[in-house]
Amino acid sequence: MAWKRLLLVFGIGAPLIAVLAFGFTRDPREIPSPLIGRQAPPFAVRLADGRALALADLRGRVVFLNFWASWCPPCRAEARALEASWRRHRDQDVVFLGVNMQDREDAAREFLREFGITYANGLDGGNRIAIDYGVWGIPETFILDRNGRITYKHIGALGAETIHAKLEEALRGEVSRREGKGDYRSIR
Amino acid sequence: MVLAGLVLLAPAAGAGGEDIEEQLRAVASGLRCPVCQNLSVADSTSELALEMRTLIRDQLRAGKRPDEIRAYFVSKYGEWILLSPTPRGVGLLVWVLPGLGMLAGLGGATWALRRWTRRSTPRPDAPVHGATLARIRTAVAGGDLSGPLSAEELRHVEALQELELDHRAGKLSDHDYAELRALYEARAAAALNSSEMPRPTAQPDRVLVVDRVPRRLGPTPRHWRWVAGGVFLVGFGMAVGIFLSGAVRAREDGGSITGDPLVGTGDAGAREDSLDLRTLLERGRRALEAQDLRRAIDLFTRALERDPEEPTAHASLGLILLRGGHPNRALKAFDRALARAPSLPQALWGKGLVLHESLGRTAEAIRTWETLLAQDLSREDRERVTAMVAEARARIAGGTAPAENVAPVTR
Fold first, then answer.
1. What pLDDT is attached to residue A107?
2. Does a structural domain hold residue A187?
3. Do A4 and A71 lie in a common domain?
4. How confident is the model at residue B6 (pLDDT cuts 50, 70, 90)?
């Protein structure tokens, strides 16, 4: 009788508790992207300065693709780091491209002015590009290698060090195994 | 262009329009909205869900099949996007386990019930030994018995005689009579047996009968356990209900869905009016640590209402401003904090960060951090500051980019 009870507790109870405990270690809101290591979805976008840009035109260069909105605090927090990184890497076969989403155009332009952003920024009116990249939190950043393959994805605010390290990896064609995570991000 | 497309499609779609809406609902209600808490794309009012619905509608109009559209979303967001996972791999467990669990539960319940019924209700007609029965019947018929009857045995015999009379007088149906007679005879046999128990000639089957009959008459001694168990379960259920409903509150913008007793946060506004300055600062610090910036701002602003020059509040707000991308306002806040408390570590750390990272005044940043290093710091904080100073020096020397580190220094 006693061993039956033991079996009941350890055979059923312990695995059940283990499963629940495992559940607590995971963030149910985390959406792991299936896109890392795959070819980046192509798109064409209207830039804030009126020009049009297709992703295919950037083939042969490493692309730093950043989805942002003017209302999102982590986007503000990373804006200066992004601009500084762009200035640092612009001579290196690296292109920075911002994609503004879920936003008003005037607010987006004001944001670009406020932070003195000099790299190209597209306006994704219908959020189609964002959905195509499986974007759910803002900001999200994708780094593409010279062949247009996604080598890294970061969700949340980015720091200059990470940008630098990941761009170097992409220049060497290395794919990160996992996506990165900033300590805070906005969703709407 | 899009409008023209719609106009062209409209007559063709005509009858199919309703069909498309239906398909749209079917697809959207199976997709999880990426930015909501467990709402489907069909139910969510978020902008992203709205765009997704538009996208699905466009795809359906373009002739895509619902499973193709679903596959498209899975290829972008992963299996996560499906509200019901595909029955493959780990996902299969979700489909199979509930069924298995239900079967196991039903099986267990049946097994337990059968065990209980077997134990608690003894067979109503405990076998009465033939010889005993014969003795009773003789007694009822008025015949002689081998020994004198005790008062109890006599009572049983009389009851049986009365039953017989009632039956003969037609007051009882045959069925009732047979049933009652069996019952009375069993009792009489039990009485007879128990009076005979001490005798050395007792036969094994008598022990059996004696063993069974009292069990049927008195309640089993385990009943109180079931009662206690039931009371405990009801109490536990009520406690869980009350605690959970108290702990979960409606999600406000950016807020947490849990609060109150379980995590010690929650309805802040109501109680914080009466808090003193120290409690406000302490709670603000905790909110800042928990990344609950909105609450932290609220608490520190309240602290400043009590004491407009409170240095910790200014320094903490400065750190929040810095993270929000407002370096100039952050710097002002740090300076205000330092005006009152020139050696406040938080303010010195934050001021250094602003100067170094956002304003490019690295030399000043190094001076600020050196003041900080002169303070009594924890080993961890000291290492972090030292590393930042070293990095800033290297930057001045070689012009490298700044590192990102906006965590508050805590003592």
1. 94
2. no
3. no
4. very low
Query: With 80 as the cut, is the pLDDT of residue B133 above it?
Result: no
Q: Which residues from chain B sit within 8 angstroms of residue A34, using beta carbons?
A: 74-78
Minimum distance, in Å, between the CA of residue B251 and any CA atom of chain A: 13
pLDDT of residue B120: 60
To the nearest whole Å, the CA of A74 is away from the closest chain B CA by: 7
Residue B382: per-residue pLDDT? 84
Which superfamily does B2-81 belong to? Cytochrome C biogenesis protein (1.10.8.640)
In chain A, the number of structural domains is: 2
The average pLDDT across A76-85 equals 92
Name the residue facing A102 among B47, B54, B55 (closest C-beta): B47
Q: Which residues pair with A153 in a beta bridge?
A: A142
26-45 of A, contacting B, C-beta below 8 A = 29, 31-35, 41
Q: Which of B182, B177, B173 shows the shortest CA–CA distance to B137?
A: B182
Residue A124 domain flag: yes
Does some domain include residue A87? yes
The answer for residues whose C-beta is within 8 angstroms of residue A129's C-beta and 6 or more apart is: A41, A43, A45, A67, A99, A101, A122
B80-109 pLDDT tens trace: 898 888 887 777 888 888 999 999 999 999
The DSSP element (H or E) to which A113 belongs, if any, is helix A105-114
Q: What are the domain boundaries of chain B?
A: 2-81, 131-217, 223-262, 275-398
In this structure, are A101 and A176 located in the same domain?
Answer: yes
| Torsion angle defined by CA atoms of residues B85, B87, B89 and B90, in that order, rounded to the nearest 10 degrees | 50
Q: Vertex A175, ends A170 and A177: CA angle to 5°?
A: 140
- Residue A73 in contact with residue A187, Cβ under 8 Å? no
Q: Higher-confidence residue: B382 or A183?
A: B382
Give residue A60's domain range.
35-181
A155: three-class secondary structure by DSSP? strand
Rounded to a whole number, what is the distance in Å from the CA of A89 to chain B's nearest CA? 11
Whether B369 has a pLDDT exceeding 50, the answer reads yes
In chain A, residues 102-131 whose CB comes closer than 8 Å to chain B:
102, 115, 126-128, 130-131
Contact A84 B401 (CB under 8 A): yes
Within a domain: residue A188? Answer: no
- The ipTM assigned to this model is 0.86
Is residue A72 domain-shared with residue A147, that is, in the same domain?
yes
Q: Between 1.10.10.10, 1.25.40.10, 3.10.450.50, 2.30.39.10, what CATH number should domain B275-398 receive?
A: 1.25.40.10
